[in-house]
UniProtKB/TrEMBL annotation:
Protein name: Cytochrome c oxidase accessory protein CcoG
InterPro entries, alphabetized: 4Fe4S_Fe-S-bd (IPR017896), 4Fe4S_Fe_S_CS (IPR017900), Cyt_c_oxidase_cbb3_FixG (IPR014116), Electron_Trans/Redox (IPR051684), FixG_C (IPR032879), Helical_ferredxn (IPR009051), Ig-like_fold (IPR013783)
Entry GO MF terms: 4 iron, 4 sulfur cluster binding; metal ion binding
Transmembrane segments: 35-55, 75-99, 156-173, 193-210, 337-356
Highest taxon in the source lineage: Bacteria
Gene this protein is translated from: ccoG
Gene3D superfamilies: Alpha-helical ferredoxin (1.10.1060.10), Immunoglobulins (2.60.40.10)
Origin species: Parazoarcus communis
GO cellular component, one term: plasma membrane
Length: 468
């Protein structure tokens, strides 16, 4: 037992999670930054503009969930076309595997919505609050009228952009011109209001506050991307053999004479990184491959009159073996890349062919199960079938229905079905055969549906005739 007056040992409490310091990316310019902004403009022009593009009297892309129809330019897709959604998901996965194997996290660095919107929000922040040193100083300063004004202006701009993003997102499911009219007249439905606010809040929170936390801790792709990497995958890499040892020096100094490498340890590569990592520590999960550090380092190398490329796109093997660019390109055509490419482009070609030769007609046949077979007034045996026709084009069509496959099989009366544009219609077909023509049981035959004006639009489906 310890003495009554002996000092007690205090055990410090360690937090389970340590909060990361806020990242203040520095403004950078250069080749890769221009590429990033080009992709940002391209993706946002498509996202914000495509829903306003008129096409055949409607918007070009519309996912009409109420009518269960998806309009994509000239294509009208129905729930029966779910196979195309499955193929799209498979193609997206294959493309991700292929591009990641060849060139690392290109998706993350240039076209991921999280990256793009973070870049846009940062641009707004920099225009209002200033570059990195001014933003750090502003956040550290006590609250004042100026600070309140700047923060209010920034968050107001973020909120406007976020709500417009949410509005545009909903505009792909509700015709956006109708949505705009409903918004201006304050008559949005509950679900439309919810999704505009939900998607807007997600954009505001992810791009304004979470930023690199999404890439580091939440995005599943960041957690398994390294499974697709190999020593010949193109990554953003620091040339350690050329850069070390680091150290400051005058512009006129000769690094070799002072025992130094080309890295002057200015830390600008860290300051421009949107996830706040030091690329000189090697390949890291947090690196999104945006190449901001490459642009920053190249500018420093130019000022020091050193060759560019201390930080560059390269591979582990290339850095290790001092490989040339031609060798890197040649090594990119390795077996796994060729296999991914073959599967991806084969599936893509089959999908394009399928869409190009797709017949804009779908037929569904259902037997009247209440009565398997009845005797008609003329003594023949009759089966009743319910036909559901879907016109997957944007012009009204008239279809002729006929039956074949059994000697003497015929419809009780000629049957034509008019189906409006991008709509469906139903009809009852009374199919008959002469008594005694078939033995008892079921017998296969075929329904043929042909466009009365365009015989190339035709569908044939099998059905079963029940003989009692």
């Amino acid at each position: 037992m310890s003495e009554p007056n002996s000092p007690q040992r205090v055990i410090p409490i360690q937090p389970l999670f340590a909060s990361d310091p806020k990242v203040y990316p520095r403004t950078v310019s250069g080749l890769f930054q221009r590429w990033r902004w080009m992709f940002a403009w391209l993706t946002q022009i498509v996202f914000y503009g495509l829903c306003w593009l008129p096409w055949n009297g409607r918007q070009a892309v519309l996912f009409d969930l109420d009518a269960r129809r998806f309009f994509v330019f000239d294509f009208v897709l129905w729930p029966q076309d779910i196979i195309y959604l499955a193929i799209l998901l498979v193609l997206s996965a294959l493309a991700l595997f292929l591009f990641t194997t060849v060139a690392g996290r290109l998706w993350c660095g240039y076209t991921c919505p999280q990256t793009v919107y973070t870049e846009i929000f940062l641009w707004i922040e920099q225009r209002i609050e200033g570059d990195r040193p001014r933003r750090i100083k502003l956040d550290a300063a006590p609250w004042s009228a100026r600070k309140v004004g700047l923060k209010t202006a920034k968050h107001s701009a973020w909120l406007v952009l976020s709500l417009w993003t949410g509005f545009t997102f909903v505009g792909y499911f509700t015709p956006i011109r109708e949505l705009a009219d409903a918004t201006l007249s304050f008559s949005l439905s509950g679900w439309e209001t919810f999704w505009v606010l939900f998607y807007g809040a997600a954009t505001y929170g992810n791009a304004g506050f979470m930023r690199e936390q999404m890439c580091k801790y939440i995005c599943p792709y960041a957690q398994f991307q390294f499974v697709m990497f190999d020593p010949d995958t193109l990554i953003v890499a620091y040339d350690e053999r050329r850069g070390e040892a680091r150290g400051g020096r005058s512009k006129k100094a000769v690094p070799a004479e002072e025992g130094l490498g080309d890295c002057i340890d200015c830390s600008i590569c860290v300051q421009v990184c949107p996830t706040g990592i030091d690329i000189r520590d090697g390949l890291q999960l947090e690196c999104i491959g945006c190449a901001a550090c490459i642009d920053a380092c190249d500018q420093v190398m130019d000022k020091m009159n050193y060759p560019r490329g201390l930080i560059r796109y390269s591979t582990e093997n290339a850095l290790k073996n001092r490989s040339s660019t031609n060798t890197i390109i040649r090594r990119s055509l390795r077996p796994r890349v060729l296999i991914y490419s073959a599967v991806f482009f084969s599936l893509l070609a089959v999908t394009v062919w399928s869409l190009a030769t797709r017949v804009p007609l779908k037929l569904d046949i259902e037997r009247d199960r209440a009565v398997l077979a009845t005797e008609a007034a003329d003594g023949s045996i009759e089966n009743a079938f319910q036909l559901s026709l879907i016109n997957a084009s944007e012009q009204a069509r008239t279809f002729d229905v006929s039956v074949t496959g059994i000697d003497g099989i015929h419809l009780s009366a000629p049957l034509q079905v008019v189906v409006p544009a991008a709509a469906s219609a139903s009809a009852t077909a009374q199919v008959r055969v002469e008594p005694g023509a078939l033995r008892v049981g079921s017998h296969p035959f075929r329904f043929s549906v042909v466009d009365a004006q365009d015989p190339t639009v035709t569908v044939s489906e099998e059905a079963k005739f029940w003989m009692r």
